[in-house]
Write a structure and sequence with these properties.
The chain is mainly α. The chain contains 15 helices and no strands. The chain has two domains: 31 residues; 213 residues, MetI-like fold (Orthogonal Bundle), CATH 1.10.3720.
Length: 296
């Protein structure tokens, strides 16, 4: 009986080459996209390191001839930078904390409770996300003026307690995917829906909590119109101070100081995102990409 000789097959070098080529193309595309996204921030940093004549020069000087680090010190000392940053931080923390908790409570109600007209009400809520801010800001200002809340932080407290439609949508999608057995077991043990929310659902929703807090904090930190309209110059936020303080006696903006101050203004948001990045990505990926069973 003749033995059969098995010839080893050569490795698929062509397949490995194709995989490496596709990875190289993908990495190149990602590098280009990253460069495009970081380009504006990089140009802002470069502008903050230039002199005023270099900003007005033609043709454009892409890099400063001599780095002007004192622009950042000037941007910090020309205004009450820490005071305005404190105002922005207080407002952002108030709104982000209250808005996240209230949105979680409303999202829990839409996801786990049944009531007539719930579907239509949820449609109205999601449809309100398309309303521009300017359509509601001036009527809201008149209400706050009647209540004596202008030049106080109470408007941000009320806005936070009123929840945010987009955050409600995120929490609703997350809570709708949690198993019914958790809720039924808690009800059998005598726990009400408030206890179910605080003891069971909310502790398990930390990814969405992190994502919602970062989103709400960014909204409030970057808001310009509401603080400009509702707060005085002493209580106003850093965003308003940056746009109104770095000017010449003739009213023209000092762009290098404005750019330097803007870089320092963006840094807290970058730090918060880096710290909460894992929870932010997890919260966004678990609040709408999974297939869920409708609860109404």
């Amino acid at each position: 009986m003749t033995a059969t000789t098995v010839t080893p097959q050569p490795p698929d070098s062509g397949g490995r080459v194709r995989v490496r080529a596709s990875r190289l193309v993908l990495c190149s595309v990602l590098v280009v996209i990253t460069g495009l996204m970081l380009g504006p921030f990089g140009w802002l940093v470069i502008t903050g390191l230039k002199t005023t004549p270099e900003l007005a020069a033609s043709p454009v000087h892409w890099l400063p001839e001599k780095i002007q680090w004192h622009n950042f010190a000037g941007a910090f000392t020309q205004i009450d930078f820490l005071g305005h940053a404190r105002n922005s931080l207080i407002i952002a923390l108030i709104y982000a904390t209250l808005g996240t908790l209230s949105s979680a409570w409303v999202g829990f109600g839409f996801a786990r409770l049944n009531a007539p007209g719930k579907r239509a009400l949820f449609g109205v809520l999601t449809g309100s996300m398309m309303l521009p801010q300017m359509t509601t800001l001036f009527p809201t200002y008149l209400i706050f003026a009647k209540l004596g809340m202008v030049d106080t932080y109470w408007p941000w407290v009320l806005w936070g307690l009123a929840a945010a439609p987009y955050l409600v949508f995120l929490f609703r999608q997350f809570f709708a995917g949690m198993p019914r057995e958790l809720e039924e077991a808690a009800i059998i043990d005598g726990c009400g829906y408030a206890g179910i929310f605080w003891r069971i659902f909310l502790p398990q929703s930390w990814p969405v909590l992190a994502a919602s807090f970062v989103i709400a904090f960014t909204w409030s930190w970057g808001d310009f119109i509401a603080p400009m309209l509702l707060l005085s110059s002493d209580r106003t936020t850093l965003s308003v101070a940056l746009m109104t303080s770095y000017v010449t006696p003739g009213g023209l903006p000092v762009n290098n100081l404005l750019a330097a101050g803007s870089v320092m203004y963006v840094v807290p948001i970058l730090l918060i995102f880096l710290v909460a990045q894992r929870g932010f990505v997890a919260g966004m990926s678990t609040s709408g990409l999974k297939k869920r069973t409708p609860l109404y």
